[in-house]
Amino acid sequence: MKTNHQKILSLEELIEKIKNSISLSAEAEKYLYSIIKKKTVLKGDILIHQGQVVKHTYFVIDGCLRAYCIDKNGKEHTLQFAVKDWWISDFIAIYNNELATLTVECIKEATCLEFKTKDLDGIYALFPEFEAFQRRNLERHVVSLHKRILNQLQLTAAERYNLFLLQYPDIEHFTPNYYIASYLGITQQSLSRIRAEKVQK
């Protein structure tokens, strides 16, 4: 059973992260504590289903979540892995007021901070300083996605795999091969070949 003390300790990580980015008043900090829910997510749990209304955004304290979509042929495409200090949700659905285009699932037991999207929207009117913090989060997310697109266009599969290992050094220990292959845009056979060639070097 999670105690209130444990909850405060986990929230403090995010609070300190925010304080390092913006000046945070005592009132704003109190409000943050009131809208955040700590959530333990088990491996295999689904937080967002493709096709549903998206009501929450998640900040990862530990563990790993994955966002993916399924195309009309039933093939999975992994868009994002979210590890410590990353946010994850279906932002297209949130900002375009659409149904979810992604599914978000837990692939390693995780501790997350859960926010209702309506609470996050309301925080800007109460505490405008949060707009700068959230803008930086969105900038970080957009930059990450743009880099990934450029990597897909410009780099070989082996180069993309090497960059993946730098970004997620431990993820191979708990992630199925086909998740990684779908993230890299290659087949599992190609991934196995790249790994074999890497070992031989």
UniProtKB/TrEMBL annotation:
Q: Which CDD domains match?
A: CAP_ED
Residues annotated as domain Cyclic nucleotide-binding = 39-123
Q: Where is the signal peptide?
A: none
InterPro entries linked to this entry: cNMP-bd_dom (IPR000595), cNMP-bd_dom_sf (IPR018490), RmlC-like_jellyroll (IPR014710)
Q: Which Pfam families match?
A: cNMP_binding
Q: What is this protein called?
A: Crp/Fnr family transcriptional regulator
